[in-house]
């Protein structure tokens, strides 16, 4: 059965590995056709540096041919063997209930059928010199893969690459270019592949343009591919650390870093970027939250504002008033995580570093499905302009990627001077007497208290008892 047979379109993938094999097949097929074209060009003497590149082109051609044959032949044979085994089991079950059959006749029929199938397969291979591959275009293959991937996720199998591409709304060429970059970053033999495609032995990763040349093949032209390449660059920028030259944007190298590879294939995909561990941390965890016993109306207000489309919330109140606690409750309700930035530490650095750090935090929120908490917000009067500039940058970068932002401070800050983006301001007042008593009674229930202790006479601290 063809790997892209229409009958398979409605069947989910068996695993993440199988899904990625299909994605990488799109790259391998595109590369193979492009290399064949280069071989023809160099063989005819039309290509420059023939004596330098031509031997390597043959090596790359053999490599991609081997990968394609493995995908279409070995994997297909495994699938067919599995289907044949199921068929045999079904026939055996039916035979138990049927009348005796003619063994000799069955043998003859079986041999006839086997001979017919193998002859057809053999002729196909002899005609092409390699296994028969699907005639679908790369775009059609990606559409086929996407339909099966959606069914796979619905059944509960995680497909990190697919889910990330869907979350960011990647178009087919962006998915293809991203896959090219992953191959160059994870498989050393692809260094030679992209050196040949780039016609630059010092460049072992795809560029936006070289990926487009492979994707489009004979149909490639700058005018025809410009829209896809421009969109691809814009879609990859929030996720990949790209060095973009304004004068030559499509020469940008696409090389996913370790954080992206870990997220897609690692054992701990939610481990935050170690380069910024001094400033960021995961606020939420899987621990059960204590009940809300003070200022419950604040959480209700926040939920209403969120449902109305607000994505920036500003909390201010004394230490222990429950700022982080309410964020955790919000995240638990929305089934998301929360990443905290210590702005007091981060905002001591220069603009370039802070800009880079905020980009990294935004990416972490995307990768881990998290909101962002800007904590330790305060400034001296002489630093007001710098502080407000950094806050404006933080609000803009995060909300641009549809990330919910929580700003937290003790003293009130008028953020109307910072941003034009709509936000909800929420003051967390000191819990009243009844709320404090309820808190003390709840958190002291595991202890035996002296009969003379009166909860209402306990120190009237604004701090709520610690969360578990």
Structure description:
Helices cover 55% and strands 6% of the residues. With 468 residues, the chain is of the alpha/beta class. The chain has two domains: 6-259, no CATH class; 274-457, Rossmann fold. It has a six-stranded mixed beta sheet, with helices on both faces. The radius of gyration is 30 Å and the shape is elongated. Residues 104-128 and 460-468 have low confidence and may be disordered.
Task: Summarize the entry for a quick read.
The chain has 16 helices and 6 strands. It has 468 residues and is an alpha/beta fold. A 6-stranded mixed sheet has the order 1-3-4-5-2-6, sandwiched between helices.
